[in-house]
Hints:
Layout: H1 2-36, H2 46-73, H3 81-85, H4 94-115, H5 122-129, H6 131-146, H7 153-175, H8 182-205, H9 212-215, H10 220-225, E1 258-269, E2 275-283, E3 290-299, E4 305-316, E5 319-331, E6 334-340, E7 346-356, E8 359-367
Amino acid sequence: MMATTSSQALWYSTRATGIVALVLLTASVVLGALTTLRVGTTAWPRFTLQDLHRRISLLALVFVGLHVLTTVSDSFAPIGWVSVVVPFTSAYRRLWLGLGSVAFDLLLAVTISSLLRRHVAPRTWRALHWLAYASWPLAVVHGLGAGTDPHLGWMLILVVACVAAVVAVVGWRIVASWPARAGPRVLAGVTTVTALVALAAWTASGPLRPGWAARAGTPRALLAGSHRSVTGPAPSTPTTSTSAPAVSGAALPAPPYRAPLVGTISQGVVSGGAVRVDIVARTTGSLDAVLDVVILGTPDGSGGVAMQQSQVTFGTPGAPSQFAGRVSTLEGSRVVLALADQAGRPLDLRVDLSISGSQLSGELVSMAASGGRPGGLQ
């Protein structure tokens, strides 16, 4: 129990330090751009902005270091010290963790060059200092791709605010002293707008879509064996199915079929007092499939949840989001799911659960589909 509590605390600390580091890094980029614009007033002379920029940059580096430390110390995800400084070597969400490693390496280069500034030519130091600006977009994409909170409203607002602040100061710098160096300024503006559109499109089609954890590169053992709700507590112990067959990319069999399943369930309170229930399970025996159910609702007074919204994905370990949809019926320990694949082919499932603490077992049964194509979050 002590180890679980410690791991859970590290998980929350990793999330918190990462979010604070992003905010501080954004503030550092904005203040750095303002100093290059020679912004200053009587109340805020230019030297005060420069001093604030240095202090916030140092504080950002401290929180990045804490973020790295808690991430490596947490045993939930297989992230080692080598992956921190050598990009794209982690088995956990390799691409998105790798971008974070690149951002960290760039910040280290800026910090070391600043400490050795007396021994570095001014032009070289300024070139290295620009790496801090390059680390910011990498940090944003890293947070969206590797983080567990992008779908939460408050997190999206925070990211949008950070992006808007940087875009605003970049726009200010582009129009300042116009039309001097018009060509590079136009190129910078077009690049900024293109990157902004690409970021928005990728976020909508990637981190905000069901099944992102699997597509992002989360090891299948973690998807199938243990789970943490992004808003609730971590399970007290991990669940590992010893009777499940080896992971394969085979497609689901044609209905009808039934199979036992095992997994975990976690529950937590989200903004507004709503309750979120997360179910992650995997079938055993001849059917090899993974099921992910998210239910949002309100306490019903009897220890249960009155469902308001739901989101479900179901598929093989190689394609965990092959079917997506919603919970159509929630009656005690029986859950009925209305799903459809990307072609609109429906699939209805009935799941009968037996819950003991954070562990669950039960049976999954395919049913005659109702024919209605479910929406995303219902």
